[in-house]
Amino acid sequence: MMNKTHSTSRFSAVGAFFQGLGSSAARGCRKFFSNGKTIAGFAILAFFVLVAVFGPLIFPYDPDTDMASAYLMPSWEHPFGTDWLGRDVFRQVIAGTGSVLEIAFYSAVFTVVLGTVLGIVSGYLGGWVDKVIMAVTNIFLSIPSFPIYLLLAAIVTINTPVSLSVIISIWSWAGLCRAVRVQIMSLKERDFIQICSVMHMSKAHIIFKELLPNVFSYIAINFVMAMRNAIMASVGIMLVGLAAYDPTNWGAIINAARTKGLMNVKNIYILLYPLLCIVVFQISTLLLANGLDETLNPRLKVM
Amino acid sequence: MQAAPAAVNATGKGKRLLAAVVKFFRKNSYFFAKVGISLLTLALSIIALFFLLRMIPGDIVELYALKLQNQQGITFERAYELAAQLLNYDPNENIFQAFWRYIGGLFRGELGTSYLETGVSANSLIATRLPWTLFISSVSLFLSFFIGVAVGGYVAQKRRGAANKAASAFIAVSGSVPDYLIALILVIVFAYQLKWFPAQNNYDAFSVTPGFNLPFLGSVLYHAFLPILSYTIVQTGNWILHMRGSCIGVLGEDYILAARARGLSERTIRTKYMKKNALLPLVTQFGVSFGALFGGATLMESIFNYPGIGLEISNRIISKDYMVVQGLIFFSAAMVILVNLVVDLIYPLVDPRVRKG
Amino acid sequence: MQTHTDHIALFSHVSIDYPLKKYTLRAVTDVTFALKRGAVTALVGESGSGKTTIASSLIRCISEPGRVAEGDITFYGSGGEETRLDLLSDKEMRAFRWRKVSMVFQAAQSALNPVLTVREQFSETLEAHGEKLAKEEREARFSDLLDYVKLDAERVLSSYPHELSGGMKQRVMIAFALLLDPELIILDEPTTALDVITQNYIFTLLKKINREKGISMLLMTHDISVVAKFADYVGVMYGGRLMEYGDVRTVFHRREHPYTAGLIGATPSIVGDISQMKPIEGSPPDLLDLPKGCVFAPRCPKCRPVCLTEEPPMREFEDGSMGKCYFYREGDHADTAG
């Protein structure tokens, strides 16, 4: 009981977002890294970023084929073995890291921006704007997303991480939009927002300075979750063979190995590593999201 | 002179009738609002799907003509004419006329006809594929729901126990591996390596005859085992997570403490207080999941090569059979909307709080 | 010490802990006092002072993960039986709850199960206590109780909680508390969520129950004016300690304890001038970081050096009053110390 009152006072500190950006950033960092899950998730993600940036410099990937050394088992020279064309799988996985991260990042940015902006506008303005946005949202939530990804992949030629991200985010913002709208609608009833409108503050001020900081924690968590979903969707699209622009992307490696036949154990060896990378990446985002949730929504702490 | 009272009478009747109609709509406003929104969403989805598919580059008639040209060894011009005729395609027709023609077809119950295979349409595919999709996905939905609810309710009460830690670990791992990759792993291990289960198809067409006979049913279950297993693994974690969260929320409510203060047994509190309240938000989620089943799981079905709706959609997108694709996606969207509507309409029967609108 | 026959319950050196992840929080520290039979005893204090925690310990319903760490709690039944509440098994405690001690919760709106009707909740409580009554008998008992709190029994019994107004729910809760004819009712801020008129009505009703049925009451509140009107005895809590205990007239009239005096001074009065209202400076103590001496010392206008180093003992006086302060009744002779 005591702890609850304690936590709520700490939570209202989010409102102190404005005072002293420097000190609040430092406090934010300390708070951010006070949670074990956050640290673990962040560390793994940071590791993947480092691999994406420096990996290709240390272990450059050579796409040339060398049939003589096809299907080699893992060795010192080829830690993950080689594929059916004699290319090093370890270097392929490293070369693909960047593209995977780019897709995750861009998709999350597009999804979150689209979902948050529309959600806030819809929830705050209400009226016919709300009705129109909700009608559109309903369409996006009713039509199953994966077939649409495939259709969009047929309409737009996917040749960069950005184009793939656009396709993924076009059909994934609706859930977030609806959730943000609900949050905004309940915030709107709270006293401090009511006071703002009584004081005739501009809508822009209320939206960006009052409402946005209050849903910030929610958005941060959803950013991480959007990264998760983007990985799931992008690898899925590649598994169907509709986004073959980057043969070193983890999804593309898995698909290539799969289509070469799973009766052959050697192909399983090849797809094992990118698969493992995807799982580790997904676990890191889950840890990060849960950690952020625990830090930013302290009500859970009493448990 | 004589007509006047009759007219008054008539307008009086009309007014009364109008008032009755208005009253009827008012009384059932919840019902009509939900139905209205669903119909609107359905209409907008049809429009969105139609125009999305028209954005796909490439001329359908041309594709078909090329096919006919190869098949029948005729000139392209002749093939094009023939194709236009067979597809009931008018080159002068603009997109809006095409749209009205499509809507007309929908009202006659024609979801879309294949131009690659004669006699195949979205309707015929739904009739043959949907039972398979529904079979594996609904069995696993029910399985995972019941397991998830039981486990979630149990671990919510023992938050410090080992069971909760194990459940958390399971949720983290099963939620981190994309569903189709779990399917892929199961196929690799149990179908290709251990060879305990088949890697594709819904039954063994060579050794059994479809019908109500034991070998057929056995073969169906044998082929469905891996798909059902992977679906269940994927979804159970989610249900545990939701049920646990919902239960923890309910356990923090005053009425749990009050029930304990009244001397009620822990068993009563668990069943009548915790579970009954915690299940309410899950009803909606269960409905949403059930509605989503009708579209099939595209990737899962392609990994198991299981002939359901999802596999059909992905195969036909790749082979550019867009009229059928449009019909199948429309069908799955319509089912999502319909099931959500049904859930909305029956929810008041489950939760007394929304019974009175 | 007095004989126990005029007591209904006795808390003896009770401390209650909340073991949390990284530390243990002591919400109640060494509290000793008795509840007089047939009387209304009030516990006042700010939120977090430990009043709800100590009262809930009577029926072992301290919110998780709170536990009684030290001391013992005894209940004296009307038949002369003594029950050590801290020694009961879970099963015995379940039978004891509601039959001997019932409770009216702070938030009546959330103390009823939203998916069961009032009738179902009344019936299942009877069943849990092994009372197998015929249907007519049961219905008669329910309607008697609801009539007593001036509710339309037929309508209320078949209602779901959300179909009742706040005041109605609180009356349902009071009727509910009377269901098994308990000897003591715990009232946890029974009127906080209600408007003033309804508040008054509820207290009139409770007073009537106290007089007519002779049921003892333990009231927790932060509203000192309610205490003055309604209670016979009062205990003042601060920082998990009982600071002062005595009968209401003496405590309010003499204002011996600086914290009690502060509480009374901080209460607005309809007749008085608002400028005479003085808030207590400072903020309630952090239970994880309590001051070394007297817990109230940092906010106390009478604070002396000794208050900052050593916690004052609880002293009891001839008239039954107790006080935890070095300056409490400085002239009087203390009866017992500790």
Main traits of this protein?
heterotrimer; A: 303 residues; mainly alpha; MetI-like fold; 73% helix; elongated; C: 338 residues; alpha/beta; nine-stranded mixed β-sheet; four-stranded antiparallel β-sheet; 23% strand
| Low-pLDDT ranges of chain C | none
Helix/sheet category of chain C: alpha/beta
CATH class of chain A: Mainly Alpha
Tell me the number of strands of chain A. 0
Please provide the count of β strands of chain C: 13
What is the H-and-E element order of chain A? HHHHHHHHHHHH
Q: Considering residues with a beta carbon less than 8 A from a beta carbon on another chain, report the largest interface and each chain's count.
A: A-B, 40 and 50 residues
CATH fold call of chain A = MetI-like fold
**Shape of chain C, please?**
globular
Instruction: Describe the strand arrangement of the main beta sheet of chain C, using strand numbers.
Output: 6-7-8-3-9-10-12-11-13
Number of helices of chain C: 11
What does this structure look like?
The complex is a heterotrimer of chains A (303), B (357) and C (338). Chain A is mostly helical and 303 residues long. Chain A has a single domain (36-177, 215-302), classed as MetI-like fold, CATH 1.10.3720. The longest helix of chain A is centred in the C-terminal third of the chain and has 38 residues, at 203-240. In chain A, 42% of the residues are buried. Chain A has 12 helices and no strands. Chain B is an all-alpha fold. Chain B contains 14 helices and no strands. The model of chain B has no long low-confidence stretch (mean pLDDT 82). By secondary structure, chain C is α/β, with parallel strands linked by helices. Chain C has helices spanning 51-56, 90-96, 118-128, 135-148, 153-157, 166-177, 196-213, 224-230, 248-254, 258-265, 305-309; strands at residues 7-19, 24-36, 40-44, 67-76, 82-84, 101-104, 184-188, 216-221, 233-238, 241-247, 315-316, 322-323, 336-337. Chain C is globular and about 70 Å long. The two termini of chain C are 13 Å apart. In chain C, 41% of the residues are buried. The mean pLDDT of chain C is 84. Chains in contact: A-B, A-C, B-C. Chain A binds chain B through residues 135-136, 138-139, 141-144, 146-148, 150-152, 154-155, 231-232, 235-236, 239-242, 254, 258, 262-263, 265, 268, 271, 275, 278-279, 282-283, 285-287, 303, and chain B through 37, 40-42, 44-45, 48-49, 52-53, 55-57, 159, 172-173, 175-178, 180-181, 184-185, 187-188, 192-193, 199, 248, 292, 295, 297-299, 302-303, 313-314, 317-318, 320, 325, 328-329, 332-333, 336-337, 340.
